[in-house]
Amino acid sequence: QLQFVESGGGLVQPGGSLRLSCAASGFTLDYYAIGWFRQAPGKEREGVSCIGSSDGSTYYADSVKGRFTISRDNAKKMAYLQMNNLKVEDTAVYYCKIFSSWGQGTQVAVSS
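Below the sequence we write its predicted structure tokens.
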């Protein structure tokens, strides 16, 4: 099972920014696509963004397009999700997924 840990969540006001990190260890990150998902209270887990392994192609859910940016640094075995102009509806636990493995999640709360 792939090992990695998310961090960077927190409480922020609407319009604020956060950067989530996904730190991998024990395997070569280069070979894998990386996805960010989120699950809000009472809702199903949904895909937010993903980045390819080879060409670095990216995908964003319509709800975050233009506000979130996914990136990766294979040398550092890190993946990031830069979240700008956060909205109340972005409140959720955010998860990193690599292959079939999930991280433990990091809580993002957007509230005034």
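The chain has a mean pLDDT of 95.
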